[in-house]
Amino acid sequence: MTALAPVLLLAAAGLGSATDSTETIAARYLDLTFAQQYDALEDVYAEDVFFVDPTGDVWDGPGSKGVHGAGKLIALQKSWGLTSADFAIDEQFAVGEYALFRGQLTWTTRNNPEGVATDFMTVIRVVNGKVAERHDYGNYLRAFGNSMSDEIHANAKTSEDVGTKYFQAYLDQRYDAMEQLYAPEVSFRDPTAAYFGGPSSTLYQGRDSVVAMMNRVFQPISHFAFDVEDTWFSNHHAVFMGIVRFTLIAAASGTAEDVTFEHSAVFVITVVEGQVVAHRDFVDYSTFRDQLQAAGN
Prior knowledge:
Distance between the termini: 21 Å
Shape: globular
Strand order of the largest sheet: 2-1-6-5-4-3
Radius of gyration: 19 Å
Helix content: 25-40%
Structural class: alpha+beta
Strand content: 35-45%
Number of helices: 10
């Protein structure tokens, strides 16, 4: 939600429009990926493409730590041994360079021909017509919980308790309560806010930096709410999906009256040892301009 801070400048600077090809390229890329057409991805990936699946920490594999480079990523994808994959998409949107897809992923492997299913989300960044980044989030505890350790199940319960408590404090704009849950090294970023340009998608690191940013960003907001459509918790991650609503006061929106915005959104909270170590927002800001203009700006 860091995109809210420079809202006064939007009318003068103009909003960047979502690249028409972002969602198309991302969707085509997913088709190739889930059809196991990995060699064809050489022409789709940027040379220095980056992939990470933070929720893959349940296996502590290379994907959970991040992989750089087209060749290494293709090799990683081949190593998964997929024989089939079906991604039933419940929600998708594209904003600027980013496209988000979430739904249910079902797949089979050579070692598991019967298949498994899980909640799944992927965020694709497209730069100059190439896939430059891919960030996956999967509820693998749902699919493989019976084979996972008691520690991972305990971590998931902590992530649910702490993540839910923190997320409610976030919605209520209770900064003191949020600060008490932050780890010293906490980080915050809203990559999709790059749509607004400038420093909107800045990575904030450290408790003091994140707290100061939250206080600054929420000053022009009189109401903040979230309609939950789905949630899940896996090891160190709490994921909240739905519709975010926030009201900007007239002085901030440049309109005669306060303006309420509504966007599809996903919030990912990372919890380690009972503290929030990361907060990521993914929001469909592509409708922001139309909603602002409809309010008379």
